[in-house]
Each structure stands twice: as structure tokens, then as C-alpha cells.
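C-alpha cells as discussed.
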């Protein structure tokens, strides 16, 4: 049986910077979804892509993904003007055209 990976997420002191961490791996970013970005870091570190993956704030589940690979394949795009809600789209490596 494949073990579920649970990453902790939250905001740092300034409440603008987001983080996600699991074990010794940590991602910090100003926007987007740190949990999805952390999934890509964990894959690169050799974690099993078939592992179930979820993010949590303390004891409460925030997001649940079928696999680590699925979470790693996604990213959040925020509108340039901040008026439209964020969208979840397929992740593409940089450089890329803006959505």
C-alpha cells in the first residue's frame, strides 16, 4: 500500500507569504498554491508519484488530490487585476506565456 503524503500549509508572519512543507522540504511563495509547488519538489526528491497527497492547515484538510503526480500537474493562476477569482490550470515549466 502506498503511504499518503500530508503537507502542512499556511501563511508566514506577514500573512502574505504562503508556505508548504513536508519533512525537510519547504516551499515559500508570494502567490499561487504552495501545496502544488511542493508536490513538484517532492517528485523531484524521489517521492512516489502514485502516493495520495493532501495539504492541511493544522489538523484540518485543506486540499485532497488523488496522487502526488496529479497535484504536481496543476498550478493556480490569479488575474492580473485581482478582480476575477483564481483558476486552477495545468502546470507548465518555465519559460511560458502568461495565461
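Sequence:
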Amino acid at each position: 500500500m502506498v503511504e499518503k503524503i500530508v503537507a502542512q500549509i499556511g501563511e508566514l508572519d506577514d500573512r502574505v507569504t504562503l508556505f508548504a512543507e513536508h519533512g525537510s522540504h519547504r516551499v515559500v511563495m508570494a502567490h499561487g498554491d504552495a501545496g502544488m509547488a511542493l508536490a513538484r519538489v517532492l517528485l523531484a526528491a524521489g517521492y512516489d508519484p502514485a502516493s495520495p497527497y493532501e495539504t492541511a492547515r493544522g489538523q484540518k484538510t485543506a486540499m485532497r488530490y488523488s496522487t502526488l503526480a496529479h497535484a504536481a500537474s496543476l498550478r493556480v493562476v490569479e488575474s492580473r487585476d485581482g478582480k476575477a477569482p483564481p483558476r486552477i490550470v495545468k502546470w507548465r515549466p518555465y519559460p511560458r506565456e502568461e495565461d
